[in-house]
Structures are given as structure tokens and as C-alpha cells.
Write a structure and sequence with these properties.
- This protein is of the alpha+beta class.
- The protein has two domains: 183 residues, no CATH class; 31 residues.
- The protein contains six helices and ten strands; from the N terminus they run H-E-E-H-E-H-E-H-E-E-E-E-E-E-H-H.
- A hairpin with a 5-residue loop joins strand 9 and strand 10.
- Helix 2 crosses helix 4 and helix 5 packs antiparallel against helix 6.
- It starts with a helix and ends with a helix.
Length: 275
């Protein structure tokens, strides 16, 4: 009798463990071994992530469109090496249209302990006899108001016996390509203060245009002056804090244990919905 109970308990434990693992790995889109978007268990060293993250498909497409990298085709120091370095768009327009939707869905489906793992394989130089398949894959997550792209491969050639790369991109990156930061973007630094050419930080506060503060409730008088293209209206003294400041303060409250994860996620969504 005791043996049956032990077996039953063991089976229940395995079922619970399997369910737990399933929740940590969820496929959002999969075409084949090299083309997918999925959720995975994030590195605990990152702490709790700002997930679920509300980034619309259109916003994500604009971000993907801005991603650029450089590659030197000759590993030579000096001016000769610099002349062989060229700049490229990370994704083509048709790839951006599809990938933007799936990454947006994945970030909205992720919880604070999950990141988005993606891979995209595509043919480059289609009109050239040297056209070849290239792969870009890595991790995407939101932390402290910034969208992180941490790449394992950036437009790397796919060999005949190529396998999916599973190395830790935070600790090891063997690629020859490097991100080129654009407006509102910067390369991250590791714990030793070294700049990581495969880790790009994107400030989400830069995604939306700055909007002049609304008149306070009950305020009367002249209407707000109309903002000209490219101009901003300075906020009045005592105006509400920026979304970036509010998100930072909210995160601090959560990290100190003053609010629950549910309260944090709900309030964070309210702030992002106001953008």
C-alpha cells in the first residue's frame, strides 16, 4: 500500500514538474529549426523583467527597421580594415513585417521570469552568385524601461552542418558583426564594464512623441499653444512626472517588496497605456 502511495506521489511530482517546464517554454511561432519565436526561462541574474510588455506590432516594426550592424570582411588592423567594414540593415522589409508581429505577441505573453528567444534564417545577396543563407538569433526582453536585444548571431553565414546556437550571449559572442546604435539606442556593458557589441539597449520612452501636458482639471483661460512640428512645449512647474520616471519609481517600489507583482504589472500597464 505504501509503495502505491509513493508511486502516485512520484507521478504527481513529475506531472507538476512537466507543467512547470511547459510554462517556461512556449512557442509563439515556429517555421522550422532556424525560424521561430518562443518564450524561455530568463537568466535569474537579470532579476525580474518588465513583462508582460505592451509594445504594439507597429512599434516593434519601427524598432526592427532601425537595427543596423557593421561587419569587416577582412580581419586587418588600420585603415585597410576600416575600408572593408560595411553597414547593413539587420532585417529586410518582408522579414520585419512578420517578425514584428510575433515579437510583440511574445513580449505581451511573457511573465517577469521569461524572455523571448528568436531566430530568423534568410538568404542575402539573392541576385548574386555568392548569395548565401544567413542567420540572426538572440534574446529580447524589457528591463528598467529599455528593450534589450542580446544576439548570439548577427547575420552570420549558415554552414552545411549548422546547428542552433545555444551559447550564452552575455558571456560569449564569437561573431564578427557589431550593432550600430541609432537614436535612443546604446550598447550595453557587462559586469566588467566592457562594451558588448552584440547587446543593444533601446529606450522605450523614445518610441512615442513628446506630448504637451493637458490643462489641469477645472483650469480655464487661453487654450494651449499648438505645437509646431519638431517642437515640444515645456511642462509647467509641478507637472506630472514623465512615464520613464514613473516606471523607474514603480520598479523601485517593486524591488523593495512594497507592492506585489500583480500590482506592479497592473500599474505598469496603466502607465504604458497613457503613452
Amino acid at each position: 500500500m505504501k509503495r502505491k502511495k509513493i508511486i502516485a506521489i512520484a507521478m504527481m511530482f513529475c506531472l507538476c514538474l512537466g507543467a512547470s517546464l511547459f510554462t517556461k517554454t512556449k512557442s509563439i511561432w515556429r517555421k522550422n529549426e532556424f525560424n521561430y519565436v518562443k518564450l524561455g526561462k530568463a537568466n535569474k541574474e537579470l532579476g525580474k523583467l518588465d513583462h508582460p510588455a505592451e509594445i504594439s506590432p507597429e512599434q516593434m516594426r519601427q524598432i526592427l527597421k532601425s537595427l543596423k550592424y557593421s561587419r569587416s570582411w577582412l580581419n586587418i588592423a588600420g585603415e585597410i580594415g576600416k575600408k572593408t567594414t560595411k553597414q547593413y540593415d539587420l532585417f529586410l522589409p518582408e522579414e520585419i513585417e512578420e517578425l514584428g508581429t510575433y515579437l510583440s505577441q511574445a513580449l505581451q505573453a511573457a511573465d517577469s521570469g521569461q524572455w523571448v528567444d528568436f531566430s530568423l534564417q534568410a538568404v542575402r545577396n539573392k541576385l548574386s552568385f555568392i548569395g548565401s543563407e544567413r542567420i540572426s538569433d538572440g534574446l529580447v526582453f524589457v528591463k528598467e524601461g529599455k528593450l534589450n536585444f542580446v544576439m548570439r548571431d548577427v547575420g552570420e553565414p549558415v554552414g552545411a552542418e549548422e546547428r542552433v546556437v545555444t551559447t550564452d550571449p552575455f558571456k560569449y559572442y564569437s561573431g564578427s558583426s557589431a550593432f550600430i546604435p541609432g537614436p535612443g539606442q546604446e550598447l550595453a556593458k557587462n559586469k566588467k564594464g566592457k562594451t558588448m557589441k552584440n547587446w543593444l539597449l533601446i529606450d522605450l520612452a523614445e518610441l512615442c512623441p513628446k506630448v504637451a501636458p493637458e490643462l489641469e482639471a477645472g483650469e480655464t483661460g487661453t487654450a494651449r499653444p499648438e505645437a509646431k512640428p519638431g517642437a515640444t512645449i515645456a511642462p509647467k512647474p509641478g507637472a506630472a512626472k514623465s512615464p520613464k520616471e514613473r516606471l523607474s519609481e514603480l520598479r523601485e517600489l517593486y524591488d523593495k517588496g512594497l507592492i506585489t507583482e500583480e500590482e506592479y504589472n497592473r500599474k505598469r500597464k496603466e502607465i504604458l497605456d497613457q503613452l
